[in-house]
Amino acid sequence: MKIYDWIVVGGGIAGAAIAYELQQKNFKVLLIEQDARPDNATRYSYGGLAFWSATTTINRQLCEEGKICHQVLSEELSGDTEFRELDLLLTIPVDIDPQKVKEDYTRFATPPKLLTTQEATELEPLLNPEVISGALTVKHGHIHPGKTTQAYLQGFLQSGGEIEIDKVVTFQNLEKVQSTGVNYATIKTLKNTYYAANIAVCAGGFSRNLLKASGINIPIYFTHAEIIETQPVELQLNTLVMPANLQRFQLESGSTKSDELWDEPGNKLGNILDPGAVQFLDRSLRLGQISYILTDPHSNIDATNSEALLRDRIKNILPAIGKLPGSFHHCLVAFSKDSLPLIGSLPEQDNIYIFSGFSNPLVIIPPLAKRFANWVSSFEDDIIPQLSPERFGRGNWNW
């Protein structure tokens, strides 16, 4: 029977980064991922790195650290993350005043520049000029999220880490291992029982229900996100295109006002469609996205209807892009009440930690993974304690 210092649950970019950083601290680490072939939010991400978008002191610091991390990450991990900078275009609908939209963006660390419709279409010739009154633009970081995660995992394995493909069923905080007489945190999976001094839950959109199955309720939530992915194409998209009036964050914020609604699996708390597109270096595209808030993580999605809606909106903005053949995909995306992640041990569960609920995740996960590994190695940190789940108070949660 193996006993680990840490078991990390979830093999997306959050779990991969945490596992790698913990292994660098000479902990004995096991990562458990349920899918041999990735099928998570990391897999279907746009890959964008919004270094420019910080609005708070904490986010400004993390975005600055994140940019430094990403600039050297390929070299550190000995795996190409495809890091680059490209132009982000935030499209403004034809019936909206561009100046007012520009004013809404002045709170960001690097406010985007306003372009006329002509300037926007010169920068991105695939745009439909008839449906926009202008656009905002700013330099935007970009990586291949799948390749970045694989680079983390490869670095983790090369450092002596272990990976198991298995599905976690429940956790227990402390259980005595008879052969040692010592209490360890316990994970029960479909195949086995694992023991560790500590557990880090990095299961993204599944984190809430996974913890709830073990009697642990915390204020973490999820959307059902839907995208279309194409094969490599000859067509060239020069920029990352998204709407200036992103609705996803408003949807998330509005859905967290009543935790009671989240305890009922059949609730539908809203949906939005933010049409956008990005092309990767292999010339494939990801087109998105629809976000549904359905409190059951296993809710059935009408893929045919969703794909039709998504294509219709994208064709309006990018006519040549919207009609490209592609495959439809669905995943869960975790979020919190205040757009900051939940990081730290759970109250009365001192051996179980959460590392999930990220907004702007690809930027801040690398620096926070480093900070977390240092923090649990008894180094002081000025940010990690501020991200504890306890910042929301315990309320009526079942700890």
TrEMBL record:
Keyword Membrane tagged: no
Cellular compartments per GO CC: cytoplasm
Listed SUPFAM superfamilies: FAD/NAD(P)-binding domain
Listed GO MF terms: oxidoreductase activity
Domain FAD dependent oxidoreductase: 5-375
Keyword Zinc belongs to the record: no
Keywords of this entry: Oxidoreductase
One Pfam match: DAO
Protein name in UniProt: FAD-dependent oxidoreductase
